[in-house]
Amino acid sequence: xxxxxxxxxxxxxxxxxxxxxxxxxxxxxxxxxxxxxxxxxxxxxxxxxxxxxxxxxxxxxxxxxxxxxxxxxxxxxxxxxxxxxxxxxxxxxxxxxxxxxxxxxxxxxxxxxxxxxxxxxxxxxxxxxxxxxxxxxxxxxxxxxxxxxxxxxxxxxxxxxxxxxxxxxxxxxxxxxxxxxxxxxxxxxxxxxxxxxxxxxxxxxxxxxxxxxxxxxxxxxxxxxxxxxxxxxxxxxxxxxxxxxxxxxxxxxxxxxxxxxxxxxxxxxxxxxxxxxxxxxxxxxxxxxxxxxxxxxxxxxxxxxxxxxxxxxxxxxxxxxxxxxxxxxxxxxxxxxxxxxxxxxxxxxxxxxxxxxxxxxxxxxxxxxxxxxxxxxxxxxxx
Length: 383
Ligand SMILES: [Zn+2]
Known about the structure:
Helix content: 55-70%
Number of helices: 14
Distance between the termini: 42 Å
Largest sheet: 4 strands, mixed
Bound molecules: zinc ion
Order of helices and strands: EEHHEEHHHHHHEHEEHHHEEHEEH
Radius of gyration: 25 Å
Number of domains: 2
Structural class: alpha+beta
């Protein structure tokens, strides 16, 4: 199970914004490169302390701009009925977390275009502010930071408009192919392939630049190329998996009548059941009603001396929307929920009653079976 390294930052327009730890490295790098490189080169003869605060303000402005870009995607997505769980900022910027794929080409297009549009508007705003400040002979360090923010927002817009799926430009391309060809699977396959080629191009460009002496620019190009290639193939695989599982109900893949434990039983009883049935997860059920679950994690968290005599009720993880799913939901939704929460098992609950348990392993087995047997729904070609 992947550890959640994302740390909540703020909530904006109802979206929780988290940052990945890799993000802190980028913040430090940006402050340093602005105050030691960019600002001294652009505005000579200012005191060092001025360059340092210009770097700090510039970095804050850059990251606020990235957040606004992502919020624009999420805001439009939510207005169009997409479920958005939050926004994560990581080393290459940000990502809105979609619960599933957009429902139509139009939704995809509007959502994808919103981010670059926000960046372009921010670029214009910062440029106008900088020009207004220069017009009244305002302080150079402030107009310098504003000019930088105008330029960096323009770069953000242009970079994200590269037609390399899953960047925004690639999503716009996918929406266009989808509207034209009628199949999202086919459109994703083509957009991801183009993304892979552009990624490869950036990697080659990076190597050529490094050899040619542009080490920093070349490294960036190389890293961004690698990132685009891995993101393109990951989103393609995820889409294929979700597509293959979308017509299968959770009820068909769940374990029916799983071994359960009563809330009044002791932890010793749960351990007995783990060992007897080769399990590490038990739903907690009383009178057919699902109350929660208890697993190795909950048992191991107890001090070993008092472990065995404690009632399950006190140590279980109570039932929550994140850890349960309806038997009528499709298996793709279960997979997406597991990817989002990091859980490998969900309780299948209907009207409060336990219907079964669905496991990540069973979903993956089903995927493997379907691809081995070539039951992969053949992507439709353009009409
Ligand atoms: Zn974007």
